[in-house]
Amino acid sequence: FRTVEPLEYYRRFLKENCRPDGRELGEFRATTVNIGSITTANGSALVKLGNTTVICGVKAELAAPAADSANKGYIVPNVELPSLCSTRFRSGPPGEEAQAASQFIADVIENSQMIAKEDLCIANGKLAWVLYCDIICLDYDGNILDASAFALLAALKNVQLPSVTVNEETGLSEVNLKQKNPLTIRKHPVATSFAVFDDTLLIVDPTAEEEDLATGTVTIVTDDEGRLCSVHKPGGSPLTGAKLQDCITRAITRHKEVKKLIDKVIKSIKPK
């Protein structure tokens, strides 16, 4: 029945206010985060959201700032959905979903002001940090945006940058690898995704199957103060103001859970 009439199969569960995997409509899958797992990166994190597994590595390089923003560095996010993570993706150049996810992450960084690009500048007009944030999906089971945003935040909180100075006489940069500083994270944006069923029912943290059956999805990004950073709604069924407000309220609650989880992990790995 599930194979022949998947939507009808789901509706039977939704009528009982539960889902085939046993979760309630407003329940998230088990979430875990592991920080600092890639030793070759300046910062990294592995996030699991149910079966969806995403790893983010941040690589920092030095470059000259752009002429029109001499006091700013760069953040370059890239989301990869390789064929190994799901049969729905093919090898080769990034597909539509990967491009949309990369754009979503870029918007989150920009809108939330999680890192002030001025903080990445070392010498005005001469030298700045470029942070390459590679987010790679290892196992795809829906809700890639939440997992990617979470992995990015956790990886950036793990980043340690060496101390760099520019020698006034020679104009060359001098890197001190012994002295490392963490990034200044000004805001902690957290994404919360919902799938809309039959234009009325909202379920959080949809699996890949639920995303395929849904009539629409919406992702709400909030920051520490409960402010809205962005609403990502790629088409699908419209949402009423009341439903959207409901999503925002749930997103604020989810933000607190995620923040608590990150803080706990960071505390546990800090040298005593």
Automatic annotation (TrEMBL):
Keywords: Acetylation, Cytoplasm, Exosome, Nucleus, RNA-binding, rRNA processing. It holds the Pfam family RNase_PH_C. Belongs to the RNase PH family. One of its GO terms (biological process) is U5 snRNA 3'-end processing. It is found in: Cytoplasm; Nucleus, Nucleolus. GO terms for molecular function: mRNA 3'-UTR AU-rich region binding. It comes from Sula dactylatra. It comes from the Eukaryota. InterPro entries: ExoRNase_PH_dom1, ExoRNase_PH_dom2, ExoRNase_PH_dom2_sf, Exosome_comp_Rrp42_subfam, PNPase/RNase_PH_dom_sf, Ribosomal_Su5_D2-typ_SF, Rrp43. This is Exosome complex component RRP43.
